[in-house]
Amino acid sequence: MSESLCIPNIGKKERKKCYIRSVCFFAVAVIAIALLLMSGVSAWWRLLLVLPFWMGFMALFIARGKT
Question: Mind telling me which residue stretches traverse the membrane in this protein (predicted)?
Answer without folding.
Answer: 18-37, 43-63
